[in-house]
Amino acid sequence: MSSARIVLVSVPQGGKAESLAEGAVEARLAACASILPSVVSIYRWKGRVHRDAESLLVIKTTRARVKALERWIKARHPYETPEFVVLDASSGSREYLAWLEAQTK
Length: 105
Fold this sequence. Notes:
4 strands, alpha+beta, Alpha-Beta Plaits, 40% strand
C-alpha cells in the first residue's frame, strides 16, 4: 500500500495557485503540484449558487505530510473555507512513489 496522497485545492484565478504550489514544494509539504489553470466551479455558498473561474491545484504528497499541508494551505488561502480534498493513491510507479516520498522528508 502506498503512502502517496493527491490533494485537490481550488483557488481563484490570478496567481495564487503558483504561490501556493511553489511554497508547498519549497516547504517539503509536497513533492509536486500541478496547476490546471482554468476550471469553472459551480457550488452553493451561503444560500446562493455561485459560478466562478478558478484554478485547480493537484498536489502530490504523503500521508505523513497531509495534516501539515492542510494547516499551511488554510493559513495562506484567500477563501474562508478552502477546498482540501485528499485522495489515496493506492498504487503507482515504484520509482515515482519513492521519489515522492524522498521529496517530502
